[in-house]
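Dear H.,

Thanks for agreeing to be a second pair of eyes. The structure we're designing against is below in token form, covering all 285 positions.
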């Protein structure tokens, strides 16, 4: 009988199962008495690895100790080794700390004298945001009245969320996921430090960029406008002087030319021939 259970007869033959392992009591009886002996039966079988003891999906956190445990059943007790497939099946070092390079697919193998079993495990590594970078488009120095945008990027798992510390201005618009900020019609209020913060459940990191709003173009335009006004006044004065000078010279020339003509004699008359001449006085040079 097995463990005090049902009594069986010796000489029975059937396929062995794992459940057959246990303590058996053998009792021999005849008319002169009884002999009893106990027997421990062990059933050996090849290894196996199931989901509860060896999950196929793992989540590690950067900076924590490496721990890749995979339980296997089998008799004799299997020996389990795990290696990353991309690393040429080099065993995982349990003395190291987790890095992002540990992410990937691993293969665990359980082996005993009856056989072996394989199981693949996918490991994801979570980490706090790293290397926040900011890009200003088209550049970090913009002309007044033009538009620009500041984009923020950071690696992290879970994907980070973004926050901003900005110069206070009304012409700001945030992009999808708060990953960028756009400025329409840059003004003096938009110059200053733009700081982006990326965070997840493992930490945060910030980055900054300085934006300059260049007003020299307006100053140049204003200067050119002033120069233009002064130039226009100068040209008008010069033009007037030129016209006056030329007119005087032309008038003097005409009068002098007329002095010796027959018409010049009429200049002193009140009426001369067909027309009248008024108030023209010829002077001696």
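And this is the sequence the design step returned. I haven't edited it by hand at all.
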């Amino acid at each position: 009988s097995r463990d005090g259970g049902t009594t069986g007869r010796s000489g029975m033959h059937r396929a062995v199962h794992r459940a057959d392992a246990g303590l058996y009591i053998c009792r021999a009886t005849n008319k002169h008495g009884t002999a009893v002996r106990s027997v421990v039966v062990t059933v050996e079988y090849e290894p196996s690895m199931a989901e509860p003891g060896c999950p196929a999906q793992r989540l590690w956190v950067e900076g924590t100790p490496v721990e890749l445990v995979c339980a296997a059943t089998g008799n004799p007790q299997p020996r389990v080794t795990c290696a990353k497939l991309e690393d040429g099946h080099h065993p995982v070092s349990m003395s190291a700390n987790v890095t992002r390079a540990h992410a990937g697919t691993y293969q665990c193998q359980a082996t005993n004298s009856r056989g072996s079993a394989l199981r693949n495990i996918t490991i994801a590594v979570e980490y706090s945001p790293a290397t926040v970078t900011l890009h200003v488009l088209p550049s970090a120095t913009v002309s007044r009245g033009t538009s620009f945008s500041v984009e923020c990027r950071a690696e992290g798992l879970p994907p980070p969320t973004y926050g901003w510390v900005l110069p206070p201005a009304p012409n700001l618009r945030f992009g999808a996921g708060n990953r960028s900020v756009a400025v329409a019609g840059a003004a003096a209020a938009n110059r200053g430090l733009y700081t982006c913060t990326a965070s997840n459940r493992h930490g945060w990191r910030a980055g900054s960029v300085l934006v300059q709003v260049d007003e020299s173009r307006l100053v140049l335009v204003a200067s050119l406008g002033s120069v233009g006004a002064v130039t226009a006044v100068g040209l008008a004065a010069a033009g007037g002087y030129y016209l006056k000078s030329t007119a005087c010279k032309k008038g003097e020339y005409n009068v002098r030319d007329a002095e010796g003509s027959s018409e010049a004699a009429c200049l002193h008359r009140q009426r001369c021939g067909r027309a009248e001449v008024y108030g023209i006085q010829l002077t001696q040079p």
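Two observations from my side: The chain is about 15% helix and 40% strand. Confidence is low (pLDDT under 50) at residues 218-285.

Warmly,
E.
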